[in-house]
Design goal:
Rossmann fold; five-stranded parallel β-sheet; two-stranded antiparallel ribbon; 5 helices; 7 strands
Length: 208
């Protein structure tokens, strides 16, 4: 039986991670598998640099989208996939090795999950998490300062130079093709509950 493929896209700081945590915490672990594109970035030495020596991690070319798509196809075929964690250039962090198992629900998350045209027909449900620009910036500031050891200046520079322009060029235009757009300027509790009810209903039907 073909797994139910759910896409969760949205700009940096929109709230994709919060939504994912809710899904993973409330659905049976053996019924759902998540593949995040965050673990498919190319190594720093393989990235193209600009005149300042900076990498645009918000461009599709910064990721191994081909490998990511291959892994999705393998999971859909019922095979497990192993991938090393990407640690966002933090040398003190020891990367984990993730093993993704086939499951009735496969969730694909990332900035560019809808970008490859070849994978778009595979989705059963395409979700876009949205938020206003200043709210996304504040959330990214909070995350990068704490979780990724970036400075305030680095985070603001990257947002203005890469994050916002690439979002409007590559990510936002695909919102119109999504099945469900979830505004997350304050909270998305109601939308999350509706989505969970939908997925639980699917699992109930799948188990019959």
């Amino acid at each position: 039986m073909k797994p139910y493929i759910v896409g969760i896209c949205g700009g940096s700081g929109s709230g994709k991670t919060y939504l994912l945590k809710k899904l993973l915490s409330e659905l049976p672990a053996d019924k759902i598998t998540l593949i995040s594109q965050d673990n498919y970035y190319k190594a720093w030495e393989d990235q193209e640099k600009d005149d300042e020596g900076l990498v645009n991690y918000d461009h599709p070319d910064s990721l191994r989208l081909d490998l990511w798509e291959d892994h999705v196809q393998l999971l859909m075929a019922g095979e497990s996939v192993t991938k090393q964690e990407y640690t966002f250039n933090q040398p003190d962090v020891i990367p984990q090795t993730f093993t993704f198992q086939p499951a009735p629900i496969i969730v694909l998350e990332g900035l560019f999950i809808y970008f490859p045209k070849t994978i778009r027909p595979l989705y059963d449900l395409k979700i876009f998490v949205d938020a206003e620009e200043h709210i996304k910036l504040a959330r990214r500031m909070s995350r990068d300062l704490v979780e990724r050891a970036y400075s305030f200046e680095e985070t603001l520079r990257d947002y203005q130079k890469f994050v916002a322009p690439m979002y409007h060029q590559y990510v936002a235009p695909l919102k119109a093709d999504c099945d469900l757009v979830i505004p997350n300027n304050d909270h998305m509790n109601n939308a999350t509950r509706v989505l969970l009810d939908h997925l639980k209903s699917f699992l109930g039907r799948e188990g019959k």
